[in-house]
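Model it.
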Amino acid sequence: MRKFSLVEFSVEHPKLIVLLTIIITLAFATQFTKIKTDTNPKSMLPETSDVRMWNDEVEKTFSLYEDMIVVGIVNEKGVLNKDTLGKVQRITDEILKLKGVAARDVNSFPTITNVTAEAGTLRVAPLMTEVPKSEAEIESLRKMLFENPLFIDKIISKDGKTTAIYVPLEKGSNGKEIADEIKKILKKETGDEKYYVAGDPVARDTFGAEMFKLMAIFAPIAGMVMLLVRYLMFRDLFLSITLMMDAMVSIVWSMGLLIGLGYPIHIMSSMAPVFLMAIATDSMHIFNEFYFRYREKKDKKAAIIETMRAVSRPVRNTALATAVGFGVLLFMNIIPVQVFGGVVAFGTIVLRILSFSFIPAMFTFVKDEQIEKIAHAEDIGSSRTSSLLQKLASIGTHSPKATVIAGLVLCAIAIVGVTKMNVNNNLVEWFKKDSDVRIADTVINSSLGGTSMAYVVATAEEDDFIKTPEAMRYIEGLQQHLEKLSVVGKTTSVVDYVKRINLVLHDNDPKYDVVPETKEMIGQYIFLFSMSAKPADLDNVVDYPFRKANIWVQLKTWDAQAMREVIKAMDEYKTAHPVAMELKPSGIAYFNLVWNDEVLWDMVTGFIIALIAVFAILAFDFRSVKWAIVGYTPLLFTILFIYGVVGFIGKDFDMPISVLSCLSLGMAVDFAIHFVSRLRQRMTETKGSETLSDALLWTAARPGKGIMRNAILFAASFAVMIFAPLTPYITVGAFIVSMMLLSAIMTIIYLPALIVLLQGWLFKRES
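Modeled.
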């Protein structure tokens, strides 16, 4: 019984194959109406993860809000004047009316609680009940502000030029939408003031909105560039569109499946179409070989079948390597990483099925005259590209030792660069330096305590322990220790309120600016404060059994590294000052540190497992561990070179870079598979009548042309991303351009050098 051939069936029934492809594609496309998006980094970890459960518990215990927007108001002449204070009052009033804002806990001059004393009686009231009308009233406000450490660096900068409005958001509110509403309010004001809107929800939700906008803009542009470059290569619009359709079909099937299974489009899965578009360019090798075969056979159907016989093995195995590379992510711990790996692996399999069905079927619709015209130029004897590739390959072929030594020297330099890499992540730095988000964050962080919020929760073993002078002094010491860090702008705790009350009830005598001597006195102060302050003032810093205290830590940067420094300092203090209290970090800065680390190391773990799996595939494909080692070299060198540059230029090893590691694995190894497979195939076909050098030059000139076309097509398409406003997209663009060109050059020049140098070892078994 004759073995079924999908290629032959597709060539004999092209209309049926195309019709089936269209029907299945439409079926997947119907799922797009159910699309849901989720740009919240919290969703990177399951709700049952330790950090999410702990953060939720802390937010519930201390009545905290998940998200906070910070509005900075800067006047270089000082904000304490009637005009600016009037604007602060109007802006605050308008913000309080916004839907989604937790109005009762907005803090600014008109709403923040001020603690004073009148005739020995504690007075707790809003700082600015009305806009000062005279210089004397302004001076009084200035005195209240700068005499109270709770206000300095929180709602007034030390130089008096900056103030802030802290806007907590109700759960589920969209930070970008509220930030846009606040900006509309700010635009109504004129004068010398400058306004800035910052905070995690602003950066996070703005990035989410921009991310989908960019995908909608850059994906079509990249597609159009890809179409243009293909047309310039083959001068056939129909086949160029066919190659494009191959990518589009796989994207529709993959994303349709993702949406149909009920998964939202997350930050990572939104990048899957870009990856699939890139992987689809591997079918360039089919097109490249087809014209050579047609020139030899002069029969379209025979050329298609011969082409697929020649390239089926490398095409199949590159797809397998890529699918495995991404498929291992299914076994990682982070759900979005699993989804991303699964979608790309599925899309890669779809692409290869289409390579053996849809593409051969589409070839049959092209007129013979058109193919003849293109095939005429595909002669390695007359093609300038083939000639150039032969010259490049001859460098390695004829000077193998010098080429290998030069590569090893570059490799050693790259390793030095790799050792300089810094593992870090900063969501705000995903925006360009001149973006509103980054400018706002920089200005507010340089003037005030900081926009990145963390907490340190101190937990005692018994109720009421927080009211003891021992606990109070311990917390005070911890705050002072943390404030020594350059990344910490300000800390706040119940101790600050207690010391403030103690001071004002003793006529502002500086010697009472300390923790009271007895537990009873501390308890009385807290009771008096709770009678008049906003509930949140005390709720945010202690629980009511007074077993736990919450220390607010404002950070001046969103660097994950900053939170590491806080945790390290906290642990040092705990070790040096043993007290019956546990200290544990919390807050959005802590969550960002944990999820960044977990995602990053999950990707790195997956990458290492994929490296091993891909090596096994190479060894199986080549039926030789020796050839697998040689074929692996361009991949390892490409990764080393790129990461070496990342280390030398000082770019952090962050999440986008870790995601791109998988892409480098999938693409850099493909070229080597094609090169080695076709070289060995050529040597088998010529049965020793051709020298190794000639076989290498032939491989560089013919399959190598497909490799170079693939690399150029890929690089040209993704170069457009270098112009994106978000830095992860710039990184993706620069990384892909570098990776494709570098891995292609490594394959064409370095592989021949290695093969010539190691021929005694490599061909020992064959001979």
